[in-house]
Amino acid sequence: MCFIIIRRHRRLHGCALWVALVYLVALTLIAFWPTPVDRNVHGSVGAFVTWLHGHGMPTRFGYDTIECTANIALFIPVGLLVVVLAGARRWWLGPVIGALVSAMIELGQLVFLPERFGTVSDILANSLGAVFGTVLALIVLRLTLGPRPARRTIQFR
Length: 157
Fold this sequence. Notes:
The chain is an all-alpha fold. Helices cover 72% and strands 0% of the residues. The chain has one domain (2-145). It is built from five helices and no strands. The longest helix has 30 residues, at 2-31. It is elongated.
């Protein structure tokens, strides 16, 4: 039984490495695209939000809410992948790496991309996404692999 869990975990780890590579390429393209990635859809999203407001959606729900939610969703995989790759015992690396990567992206946008905006609110939203991903990974690992076995302690008499 233990051998099967270890083998399954190794397969998960190998798959997570490939997913992380693809995700990092996509994240880099999204983060460092010279123009805002939502430029071509901003009008469509705005029209959709206006339509929603006309049909009962509260006015506090607007484009900023959609952008914040997208930033949170974009960084959920960071927390997930870090926990799967580093292990549940190092769960704290998920939020830390998420915040650091987000800060580097926002700083890079601020310094190198004149049409992009680096904001603290994006760092906060991205970091929150990494926290959500970390919690989700811990729950999924607990459900699929079961609780950690208790450590044996050596008692000297």
